[in-house]
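User: As part of a screening pipeline, I want to sanity-check one entry by hand. Below is the sequence and the SMILES for pyridoxal-5'-phosphate. Please return the complex as structure tokens so I can compare it with the automated output.
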Amino acid sequence: MREAGGSARVPFLDLSREYDSLASELEPAVLEILRSQQYILGPAAERFETEVARYLDVPHAIGVSSGTDALWLALAVLDVGPGDEVVTTPFTFFATASSIVRTGAVPVFADVRPDDLLIDPDAVARVVGPRTRALLPVDLYGQCADGEALDTIARRSRIGIVEDAAQAIGARRGAWRAGSFGDLACFSFYPTKNLAACGEAGLVTTADDRLAARVRRLRDHGSERRYEHLEIGFNARLDAIQAAVLSVKLRHLDEWNEARRARAATYAQLLGEAGLDGDVRPLTIAPDSVHVFHQYVVRVRKRDALRSHLEERGIGTAIHYPLPLHLQPCFAGLGYRKGDLPEAERAAEDVLALPIFPELRREEQERVVRGIAEFYR
Ligand SMILES: Cc1ncc(COP(=O)(O)O)c(C=O)c1O
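Assistant: Here is the complex for your manual check:
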């Protein structure tokens, strides 16, 4: 699609650019799986698990069928179930909370901090109670949640932590690496993620040998040996084609995350130069945080009108997330009302995600910022 001025659209995300640069590595890897006829788990999955465990510096990495299933498995191996509560953020992708419900437990939402939209440890401390079994923080947009503060709360209350690191592979915060704080962590390799499969895939990580063994068992119908089922599990196994793709892409992940950080820095500089303070507010990055910018999100005035203005100029944007989870129709039974979690509700009205991906070009970023500046002029 072309703009009136003749320049091509600035896509919110263009996966073809990554594919074009990687086809010569990806295609033989996929062909090898097709020729092997070992399509589920097997050597390709084991290889990826070993490589990603080394990358994340964790003792155990277990490949699974999606980030959603990773969350369910992680909660299940902590024996979270009916009668339990799990404290999480209302400002995340739906699967974070639906996974809690899937175990039979109840999600309890703690509001986010306005500056970075990560779960607020003070709000968490206020809702932890006798039924709380675990915390489920999210490393939103590619920035790690405040692991140190959450870890203190969890230790004090003797509860578990499952880290939803679906958006944050490669991120760090102080001494923590995304995927290494808490009892277990979950990653998604959905095709739009920083490390992306060509279908559905996910990962559970843990330092605990016993929990790791149980995740492995539960992802495969509760079985360790064929046709012997020790407990009721699930089909949540990693597909070998996805594992082969992920092994190829993992080699490029650091360079891609670096490119995302460079593009975030370019936005910050261009927005600053355009004098948009007051109209456009970037989110805060903690000084000890290494962000991987799965999304580049700003908070803006007149968000929906700005979005339409950009769309008319061929500039793609997205809203993550337009409705906080405590107000989702399917969670009406939890009894939350509008106004209960004001920071998440405000964020839902003013966040806007700008295009960010490693192959995004400088002139495309300049067009995005010009489009925004034109709107507020
Ligand atoms: C924060 C968060 N949690 C969980 C998920 C679920 O992952 P998947 O789509 O792989 O099931 C996603 C991504 O989609 C996510 O962004």
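Points to compare against the pipeline: The chain has two domains: 18-250, 253-376. The chain has twelve helices and 15 strands.
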